[in-house]
């Protein structure tokens, strides 16, 4: 018999990257069998994050933007204001959820979110994330420790895209990067952020609901 488990949503606003990353590590290291799963919803101040296997040659000209070497998979990416980030702190072993399955449901939630605002998006074989035509609009990066996931997804919504030109995004030279604001016009960036966050959570939660994380509680810091 399946037991319903709570899923806590924490909306954290605009945050420095490293303290949030360290908090994810601590949460994952200290969680117990009965610890509820959580989604952390936020944006970051400008930062480049370099994955475990990240190659320095993909950092072309970081300039005044800090670079943080972290413990997720993948290469380098950029986070900044106007980008929606959701970290998934889930006990995947307890849920019987495979990593590839988790990646697929995240990607599908993003695709369905973009479809809701008439943006046709897709995945690309061998390159995690979501694309519009040949341009990347959302990135994924996960770490599994002790059977639990952390890190998550980032969706470009209404941001300064210039820093992406300072790197080879996700390790791909010349990879084009796009955002929701390139397709949805006449909407204020702050309103667009609120709308896209609401839609993405609406798409993501039913995906997780099949694993019985159904008692959603919202906590604001």
From TrEMBL:
Keywords: Acyltransferase, Cytoplasm, Transferase. It is an enzyme of class 2 (transferase). InterPro entries: aa-tRNA-synth_II/BPL/LPL, BPL_LPL_catalytic, Octanoyltransferase, Octanoyltransferase_CS. Residues 33-212 form the BPL/LPL catalytic domain. Pathway: Protein modification; protein lipoylation via endogenous pathway; protein N(6)-(lipoyl)lysine from octanoyl-[acyl-carrier-protein]: step 1/2. One of its GO terms (biological process) is protein lipoylation. Pfam families: LplA-B_cat. PROSITE patterns: BPL_LPL_CATALYTIC, LIPB. The keyword Cytoplasm applies. GO terms for molecular function: lipoyl(octanoyl) transferase activity. Its EC number is 2.3.1.181. This is lipoyl(octanoyl) transferase. It comes from marine sediment metagenome.
